[in-house]
């Protein structure tokens, strides 16, 4: 039920991902959907039908354009389920209108574009968050506890993260993630985003020194990455390998190995159960399975945290939490580096100063 303290979220466009996130907004006690904008591919009537079929609040406003939604005084924040090629334009415009930003990944086509979003957010006091949901699952907090435990885990030595799924022919021909003018980073910007953030999470969000693409990448006829792997190197011999693919069996795994313990997760992107997630740890003493209960799905956890941060700004005059801009920027830097290495015969890319 809407009340005066809820953060009012506008939705830019009506695509399939909106169904999941709109449900999350509806379930979040501190947020409500206040408006939606039809896109150039959806008429007002189609948007009305979408609103009805997805249980939007009866008070939701339907705007005929993105520009109109950005001008709406009854919108505090905007969720952007639009192609990455449109992110820089519309996120920057939203920031200048004072709208907080929940942006689907990849956040941009390259870090140069994302830095324009960063600048606009910082100049206007805007809370930013990318739409990576697993980071907000309560399990992730427990994982971080284990990885930073000097007794049980010790020092990180290496981490492997993988997210793959075998897309069908229609996806490989027509999905926006394989189109250069839409989400031109392909599997690297989609599935790879998760694997890179897993590697960062395991290493205290530190950027690696070098990034090298691994042999075996697959591109489509338009040059879009359908499958690739990469090696990330930090100081003191710490490494990570990532693998992302639209061409392999569904796999969502993290293995992190420390000097005293090992962590394994088999469903890190989307837990097999909506309200329970597990991971295993092994130490010199024993092998343990840990189950973490959560009362709400991880996508709702994301919306709740985003709305909480926006509420702190709106009602208490707080500053935006800059972690999320920084974390997304580091992810984008690594995405760019993997792509650069692929384009340059797997040559390593040095990240100093990026």
From TrEMBL:
SUPFAM superfamilies: Glyceraldehyde-3-phosphate dehydrogenase-like, C-terminal domain, NAD(P)-binding Rossmann-fold domains. Pfam families: GFO_IDH_MocA, GFO_IDH_MocA_C3. It comes from the Eukaryota. Residues 7-129 form the Gfo/Idh/MocA-like oxidoreductase N-terminal domain. Residues 153-264 form the GFO/IDH/MocA-like oxidoreductase domain. Belongs to the Gfo/Idh/MocA family. This is Gfo/Idh/MocA-like oxidoreductase N-terminal domain-containing protein. It comes from Eruca vesicaria subsp. sativa.
